[in-house]
């Protein structure tokens, strides 16, 4: 019996040592130490032993059990440790691997142009103002000296929401709103960028939605030469010091006199080409001295106050500056187009 126990001990320890997994080890534990195991079997035969032999054999059986249990325990720790190590090895992060590139966006070309123009005017003491895109007929037309039935309203076919409410056709209503807010007291120096809407059919140079930047200065003794000087600074900063400007007489109901500003064509140096339609000049914006009626309607005394206003299209300016040939590129947002403007940031 003693021998059998020793044999079982050696056998169990051997098997435990060879166990390759925790599962296998557990099977060994159950097989040798379990109730149906060979040691229990041996102990069952103790009844046949003498009273002296019994305690000796009992002690030995316990020793054998203990030895096997200790071995299994040690092996279990070893296998568990190995398992952790294997898992760690599997999950090792190679910090020398190159990272996955993160796609970085860039500002939209129009945003860039608008911010550039804003910065330029802020540098000259202007503030940035805003107004609603869904506008009242009153601010979009009437307060700008365009009463109902005025023929100049035809120039801007509009998206009406009701009789009295429409999508603004220009940023000029912000002029009227700003003056009204100042309650007849100057001075005012604002620029106002924003979206405007017209019922145009979209093509290379027209879009039913586009941007404008409005400028308004109101004060005492503001002269046409102030307007010209301001626009000249703007044009040279925006397009280059070598550019000339010229003012042509024009008409807007809310300015008198009214002008349109052209800059000299850079492509041909003024000799005439496709870009300037053979004229040597490119039209950039509309401007003029604020009409006395507009001042008066907004609560300003036109005898004391006067001012100038201008309005330009950032798309057109961006198209000229970057050589973009179709206004629709700004709104179809092809990433290949937009990406080209990342370089300058
Ligand atoms: N609002 C005019 C337009 O949309 C532009 C403009 C603004 C002209 C201010 C003169 C003064 O065409």
Automatic annotation (TrEMBL):
MF term (GO), any: ATP binding
Gene Ontology CC: one annotated term: cytoplasm
Source organism superkingdom: Bacteria
Alphabetical list of InterPro entries matching this protein: aa-tRNA-synth_II (IPR006195), aa-tRNA-synth_II/BPL/LPL (IPR045864), Phe-tRNA-synth_IIc_asu (IPR004529), Phe-tRNA_ligase_II_N (IPR004188), Phe_tRNA_ligase_alpha1_bac (IPR022911), Phenylalanyl-tRNA_Synthase (IPR002319), tRNA-bd_arm (IPR010978)
Magnesium found in the keyword field: yes
Residue ranges of coiled coil: 65-92
GO biological process: phenylalanyl-tRNA aminoacylation
Positions that bind Mg(2+): 256
EC number(s) from the headed UniProt entry: 6.1.1.20
Co-factor binding details: Binds 2 magnesium ions per tetramer.
Required cofactor names: Mg(2+)
Annotated ranges, domain Aminoacyl-transfer RNA synthetases class-II family profile: 111-340
Keyword Ligase on entry: yes
Main location: cytoplasm
Reaction it catalyzes: tRNA(Phe) + L-phenylalanine + ATP = L-phenylalanyl-tRNA(Phe) + AMP + diphosphate + H(+)
Keywords: Aminoacyl-tRNA synthetase, ATP-binding, Coiled coil, Cytoplasm, Ligase, Magnesium, Metal-binding, Nucleotide-binding, Protein biosynthesis
EC top class, as a word: ligase
Compartment(s): Cytoplasm
Subunit record text: Tetramer of two alpha and two beta subunits.
Family named by the database record: Belongs to the class-II aminoacyl-tRNA synthetase family. Phe-tRNA synthetase alpha subunit type 1 subfamily.
Listed PANTHER family: PHENYLALANINE--TRNA LIGASE, MITOCHONDRIAL, PHENYLALANYL-TRNA SYNTHETASE
Protein name as annotated: Phenylalanine--tRNA ligase alpha subunit
